[in-house]
Please model this.
Amino acid sequence: MSEKAIELKNITKRFGTVVANDNISLSVNKGEILALLGENGSGKTTLMNMISGIYYPDEGSIFIDGKEVTIANPKDALNLGIGMVHQHFKLVDVLTATENIILGLPGKLDLKAAEAKIREICDKYGFVIDPKKKVYDMTVSEKQTVEIMKVLYRGASILILDEPTAVLTPQEAERLFLVMWRMRNDGKSVIIITHKMHEVKEVSDRVVVLRKGQYIGEMDTADCDVQKMTDMMVGHAVSLNITRKTPVDPKPRIEISHLTIRDEEGVVKIDDVSFTANSGEILGIAGVSGSGQKELLEAIAGLQKNVEGKVFYIEDNGDKTDLLKLSPLKISEKGIALSFVPEDRLGMGLVGSMNIAENMMIRSFRNGPYVEEQVEKNKAEALQVIKRSLNPFTDRKGPRKLAETVVEDLNVVTPSITTPVKNLSGGNVQKILVGREIASKPKVLLTAYAVRGLDINSSYQIYDLINKQKEAGSAVVYVGEDLDVLLELSDRILVLCGGKVSGLIDGPGADKNKVGLMMTSLEGGSDEN
Amino acid sequence: MKTKKSEPLFHIVKRKSMPIKYQMLVRLLAIVAALIVCAVVTVITTKMNPFAVFSAVFSGAFGSTRKVWITLQDTAILLIIALALTPAFKMKFWNIGGEGQVLIGGLGAAACMIVFGDKLPDPVLILIMLLSAVGLGALWGAIPAIFKAIWNTNETLSTLMMNYIAIQIVAFFTIFWEVPKGSGKIGIINQNTNAGWLFSVGNKYLLIIIIAILVTVGMYVYLKFTKHGYEISVVGESEMTARYAGIRSGLVIIRTMIISGGLCGLAGFLLVSGIHHTITTTVAGGQGFTAVMVSWLAQFNPFAMMGASLLIILLGHGASEISTSCGLNQSFGDIITGIILFFIIGCEFFIRYRVVFRKKGGKA
Model:
């Protein structure tokens, strides 16, 4: 049992002046599942990339089966039986599962033999996969199965899974864990990177914690609890409670009626959806990824073209404005403070090559020096109201001040406010985006996967910020993928399945399994509608 | 399966950032290294003293007061074209049509000179020439931009093709207005009256240089401090971000290409009215393409473009000097130019990355 499959000794990797991995030693036994824990930027992925041949360590050595080896490229890693399943899938959409799996392998192309071998592996580990299915027809979970299959087909005995459950439903995750246990029992070693503590508890045998590139410690999973792991990761005690205060005086703020959204090819993404989001309340939206959440939020924010139905913004006095088909600019020119934290941070919400200050004015740059006056007076209007001025120049001081405030208030780790955002870590990028969007004291706050890829500490900071907006009377629409958090945070939960509403339930007391079922089938039932 | 420890000979590591001082040092070393290689190549291929060749390059560009002025004037023209392309490039709109935009602008200026040469007072004529050159250049830039904005056509192809249309139109008009009949060229326009010839400030080179400096400063301010400049950066980075920010990408693309084409038209006007006083299909002389290199070499920084254009023009003039004074042909000059550019562009790699070699003994 305690035979070492892979051992790392004194591994160090530097990027410029940053030490990503500092003298790290760890080992994984045969027939063991090791969970690698750490905050964003703690060096987990860097370490795994060195094992899988993407980076080469500056110092230190790697042993496989007790022998020192050189892993100079991914091919070396594969030859040594190391396979990594990345967070972002690397599959060819137009090819079938089988074709993707054998892609790049030497030898004669024999699809039949390959399929037979795939079926054999499937039976052994309990996968369900149709070898002839094209990748573009697959769900996220199926694509992941193909990725894992690719690695197993090549005979890997050491598997690295980088945040495998981030995109799965609870049921799909359970199935993945079953597969992982079968691999373990077969004598393979599995390293899993995840931010979800309960999964670590459930699936792993041993936990290794990294912090700021350093090895902090390890323990048997049986001996640790979530609080202990988090404290080790963060370096100090963290409160892991999400307080859900009862909404104060909720009033309808956004009323959506019979909204249908089609994409550019005319495929229906949201099908006749109606609901209301109230002020001072968090409306959670649950659903398997790709159920139309992204399109729904974009339609409210004025970024979807092919839309039908009504999206009313309701003032405190009951006046209704239809926002549908209004551009984001038109919406803000009407004086409606609607903030949107999109899913794709650097592809939509921020401009990667610009610095923090320049990113602050992405909505307000038209205002010119007006912004500065308002920031000076600490007025939210600075970002909210679009006053087109004829002054051809942008204002530099206002955004700079706002950037300083955001960096300070949200503890953004950055060398300076003139650092391009793309050089910051995921958590800090997200804080800048959220910081800008809430700076305008929005009446409506739309967030899509606000904590995707963030470590537990940053995530809780973001939850806290969202909760504060709710308390300030904002109508918050929260699209999330971590069901546990969604259930803890939301006052009401709208469950989407394939673009349709499969239920609307109250947050307090909601049952996770029931929501999970509603996400995958329309017959899940609902409390109200 | 490799089990023996064998560290690769070297691997490449990205640098965090390098202080400007060291960056300049690396670039200087690159030029020195380039000169050494050039010297070796010179000795091997021509058996000439490399220093004689180098001094020929230098004297080609700076050998006399007149040569200095001509070098600066040519630098100014190349600089204006490079600056014209820059806003489009910052928007990731690959305007390869600078050549055609310059040419069509030049044609506009020449046409006004020919048609209104004896009918209008000089200041009015020059103003009309300027407007028609800038207008036609802007039109030439706007057409591919409109196609891109509405149908998302590939701008690299459409701007490139617009070059050939411009060349053919100029070819047509050189026959249409040929002087004398049958010569196939227009010759110097208004040679006797000098109508429409750009007036001179100080000497006949200075005005063009002043204009280039003004355009440089203007472009720097436009890109860095104005709302338009901000919009260009956002559109260049991501169409989705632009939509999110309420920027209408199509309009920005068309507006920016009007500016880009218009400035190319200005360069065409200066070439025709200020330098050549005629129009031929080769009046732009490939500078619309060379300017692409200048803009990139300067990493879209207008002030760095001053140095980059000077370097290119210096090498060009030097190359032709070598061919005459050293009795070598133009190709040798091109070889020298190529080696120097290779080193200058190549050294950017060492500014961004570090190469780590295997430590002695093969043990890390």
